[in-house]
Design a protein that fits this description.
Helix content is 14%, strand content 31%. The chain is built from 8 helices and 22 strands. The strands form 5 sheets. Strands 2, 5, 8, 9, 12, 13, 16, 19 and 22 form a 9-stranded mixed sheet that branches. Strands 1-15-20-17-18 form a 5-stranded antiparallel sheet, with helices on one face. The structure holds heme C.
């Protein structure tokens, strides 16, 4: 059975219906100031530690935050917009509904931290005593992971304009690995962090046809592709993902005994989403890799739930697309990464139980400009036969401020004015299973397994 038909079989249970789906607004905690906030509030003692822990990863020079929040002077000018952005839970960016699931990379402030920032702004942004200040945080200049065993760098820098949208940019880099390698940790290091909105590094094994006519070692976009298949390939693939980067994200470090696998002779494919930042510049990103010290018991695979057969009618603000499939073999669920385009509004992952009950795992209030991964605080064992579901909601009305055309009927397509529905998820499976073998059900006859 070829991999494609196995994937199709897994992904083919498509149910989609447009109906008004009732859902509550994002639960807002009470933003009034609670009693445990100190009576006299001080920037140096109370506010600075919160900014260091939750904000400076992006709000410092060279990062994507629009202003630095390192000093009292820098922060005072923004006291009210800081209070309002944290009160509405717009900052730090995080889109998982807090009532569903727990995630180890959740950067959200506690209610007490929110109250502190609001109370500080309301008190007129007092400085307090500089001697109370916690030491300035030392931001890593080099790698956050230990010294990598291998650094794979994009061979050519990508020239970035000062203004305008930049199409997803790709660069394919041969690894030169002469044997398969187990990856325990990896970290993407942009050279121009302020311009990198997000990055995905894919593994392209030597037998893959993905982007087969695309250049090696040179930046390109979908528009540069003369071959139709290659052009479509710049927006969709079933290739395994090695790592996703977004500003403030931490490097990957797989739990002991599990690792990602890069087959001998693979290429790494960098997919870069750049932002213009008022001056022309260039970026040449790298990925640092640390190999597993011992062969792991489990291999981490990135799988996906995809529905490409929807039509979103013009003007509809709650169009629902769904897909579900049963897992062919045991797996341990680690991580989610939902992907839609500009009309994406919400993305849910659920388990559908045999008794008809629905167990929600993640609910994302989706924003195309913040594609994040959501790592389960507790990995979740999924026995063979577990039915995993993804549900996407789209807002094709004029009230969606990102909507490029509320009068269009929207289908699957590679441009951002088309739509997608892909629910990526990472699972740990037996180490001897690659993706095709994972999809062979133990009940399948030997003939099917060929
Ligand atoms: C992952 C990166 C990231 C983190 C972490 C982050 N921010 Fe931001 N912040 C941004 C970006 C990018 C923008 C501008 C675009 C936007 O608003 O989405 C922004 C915008 C803002 C604005 C609006 C600025 C204006 O022009 O009025 C405020 C205020 C702000 N952030 C405060 C904070 C505070 C306070 C924290 C920590 C509690 C924080 N941010 C954490 C990336 C970040």
């Amino acid at each position: 059975m070829c991999i494609h038909s196995v994937l199709r079989a897994f992904l083919s249970a498509l149910v989609f219906a447009a109906f008004a789906f009732a859902w509550g607004s994002f639960p807002q905690k009470d933003s009034s100031v609670s009693r445990d906030v100190p009576v006299t509030i001080s920037f140096y003692r109370d506010v600075l530690p919160v900014l260091q822990r939750h904000c400076q990863s992006c709000h410092r020079p060279g990062e994507i935050g629009p202003m630095p929040l390192l000093t009292f002077e820098q922060s005072r000018a923004f006291a009210h917009s800081i209070a309002s952005s944290v009160g509405k839970r717009e900052m730090p960016p995080w889109f998982a509904d807090p009532s569903v699931g727990k995630f180890s990379n959740d950067p959200s402030l506690t209610q007490r931290e929110i109250d502190t920032l609001i109370a500080w702004a309301n008190a007129g942004a007092p400085a307090g005593n500089p001697e109370d200040a916690t030491p300035a945080r030392n931001w890593p200049q080099g790698w956050m992971i230990p010294q990598p065993d291998v650094v794979v760098r994009m061979p050519r820098p990508v020239e970035l304009p000062s203004k305008g949208d930049i199409d997803y940019t790709y660069e394919i880099v041969p690894t030169g690995f002469t044997e398969g390698k187990w990856v325990q940790m990896s970290e993407i290091q942009p050279s121009s962090r302020a311009n990198v909105h997000h990055a995905v590094v894919y593994v392209r094994p030597p037998d893959s046809n993905w982007l087969r006519h695309a250049p090696i070692g040179m930046p390109f976009t979908g528009a540069d592709m003369t071959d139709d298949q290659d052009r479509q390939d710049t927006h969709f693939t079933t290739a395994d993902i090695l790592l996703v980067y977004a500003p403030g994200s931490s490097p990957d470090s797989w739990p002991d005994g599990s690792a990602k696998f890069v087959p001998a002779g693979s290429d790494l494919v960098f997919q870069m989403h750049y932002m213009a930042q008022d001056h022309a510049t260039s970026d040449q990103s790298s990925i640092g890799i640390i190999f597993a010290k011992h062969p792991p018991r489990q291999r981490v695979l990135t799988l996906q739930l995809t529905n490409d057969r929807f039509v979103i009618p013009p003007g509809v603000d709650d169009y629902r697309a769904e897909v579900h499939g049963s897992l062919p073999n045991d797996a341990v669920l680690l991580n989610f990464f939902p992907h839609m385009h500009l009309r994406g509004k919400r993305f849910d992952y659920n388990i559908l139980h045999a008794d008809g009950s629905v167990e929600p795992l993640l609910r994302v209030h989706y924003d195309f400009y913040w594609q994040l991964s959501y790592r389960l605080a507790e990995p979740r064992p999924l026995p063979a036969g577990t039915v995993l579901q993804a549900v996407a909601l789209y807002d094709n009305s004029k009230n969606n401020r990102h909507n490029p055309d509320p009068d269009a009927a929207v289908r699957w397509g590679d441009q951002t004015y088309d739509e997608m529905m892909v629910g990526f998820f990472d699972v740990a499976v037996r180490a001897d299973l690659d993706k095709p073998h994972y999809f062979i059900r133990s009940g399948d006859t030997p003939a099917q397994q060929k």
